[in-house]
Known about the structure:
Elements lengths: L4 H5 L13 E8 L10 E7 L5 H19 L6 E6 L2 E7 L5 H20 L6 H15 L2 H12 L4 E3 L3 E4 L6 E4 L19 E5 L4 H14 L4 E4 L3 E4 L2 E5 L5 H8 L6 E5 L2 H7 L6 E6 L15 H8 L6 E10 L3 H7 L5 E6 L5 H9 L3 E5 L2 E5 L4 E6 L12 H16 L4 H10 L12 E5 L2 E6 L4 H12 L6 E5 L7 H11 L6 E5 L12 H12 L7 E4 L2 H11 L5 E5 L4 H12 L1
Parallel strand pairs: 8-12, 8-13, 9-12, 13-14, 14-15, 15-16, 20-24, 21-22, 21-24, 22-23
Antiparallel strand pairs: 1-2, 2-4, 3-4, 5-6, 6-7, 9-10, 10-11, 16-17, 17-18, 19-20
Helix pairs in contact: 2-3, 3-4, 6-12, 6-13, 14-15, 15-16, 17-18
Amino acid sequence: MTINIEEIEDYLDIRIPTSDKLVLDSSRRVTGPGLLWEKPGAILDVFTDHFDKQQVVDVWCEEIQFVLDAIGWTESEIKTRIFDTGVNLAISASIDLLYSAVFVVETSWQLAACKLLDEKPDTFEALIDDLKKVISMEQNPPVLTLQRQAESRGIDVLWDDDYVSLGHGTGSAKWGINEIPAPEEVDWEVLHNVPVALITGTNGKSTSVRLSTAIAEAAGKVAGSTSTDFVKLGNDILDYGDYSGPGGARMLLRDKRLEMAFLEVARGGILRRGLPLRQASGAMVTNIAADHLGEYGINTVEHLADAKFAVARTLSKDGVLILNADDKLVVTNGLRSPNTICWFSLDLDNELVTKAKQLGNLCCWLEGDELHYFDGVYVSLTVPVADIPITMGGAARFNVQNAMGALCLAKAMGIGNDAIVRGLTTFNSTPDDNPGRCNEFMVRGARVFVDFAHNPHSINAIADMLDNLPSRKKYLLIGQAGDRSDQDIRDLTNGALQFNPDVVVTMDMEDYLRGRDWGEAAGIIKKECLKHGVKEGNIHHFKSPPEGAQYIIDQLEEGDLALLLALAERDKVFEMLEEASS
């Protein structure tokens, strides 16, 4: 039977009771490890401030169990989570029935919501008949047979609407969902996994991915990466766009040239679809800070930490979890993890690093002006911070941490010391190596830094670093996306003002208005600047980042210092600075 995903996706339109007492926010397929657990299936989010949330869970679990029993899904498991504004409920399902799993959860919610709201649901028998029809259309037994055979051999399985693949990169093979071979037709000898690392956190993800990739390339590997900017393999860009979710990972891992991969993992991808693999060699959490809260029931920074730590569920039995021992939320979650952990810290006397050394566990720390890596027996690698360009001689403390994390990740991936040192010491904060991350330009004797910092945590770090640099006059270019709250914009502005600018240039970003009027976000920024003592005559507004950047470029004199928070049209800003620098 031919599987037609487009037909299946829209096959059922399950009626959901509408009430402001119970609001269905989202239902979606989950391909793998995510917020609640490591299983594929479906998840649904409900908001309520009227009902007792435990009552909602109890009623819902009862109804979904009735549905699961009626369709014969006896092995499907149920997982719930209560948060401050609602409830998540997930069920596990086989990888060939994820659309059906969504319909199952939605059906159960209709029954549960009707019971809670004292409304009449659709006929149970009719609902079950509909579910059985769509299940029969979607089920793909050959996929499950192939999955079992691959997993028994320790080979990763990746799937989506169109393809199923086994292994990674040079050891991968791919088939269309209607072209699945019998196990005896597969050349198992050529299939294998390659070293893969997942990198998440609030800040430092892209820099860590790019630096780690540079280290792998220094080791002679054909290395690839995914990020919020593109999917890249060697010198080839496979595609531009935000590929910090599972789609980008699958694109990269299915390329048969790939020998080693570093995947940037953002909160949204984890929560929407989960993670696509289960045999990673390493995973890293850089830090946890408030950012993009309020979606999918992730309303606090503690919730965000729970979501980020989903990367730990992707690790193979020999995989290593690399964690920032200087971040309290990372530490709290890391201490609960059963994985092998490598802690890193800027503090020689950090308690977790000290304990790791005593117990013969992996760790890395900053001692004096050198990074030290302990392999469980002895310090097997030291690297002077002054030799690592992105640290700016140690002034960029956040990049010292990123360097330590990349070093630890490279060790987990089996990369040798010489390549690690070459990678760390040749990777620069330039638009070519690390676009949008603390890129420095010299314009008529003035130092200009371009950074993508867009949350208080990252802006505080860059502003604090630059505040220590000598300057005649300071310029700041700042704007914010319209979907940020007023308080978020104020917090972001306060972080940037730690730079102590003499002149502030605000800007609009046409593609990021997101419901606000022109100049509205800039107006909030201006009020905050005035409150903190910036003179009104020193605050200027422009309708785009290039216009604002050009104004600053035109004013620069020798000894000046400028920070351009270029959140949009970054390439154009780079072009302008390169021209001004020549």
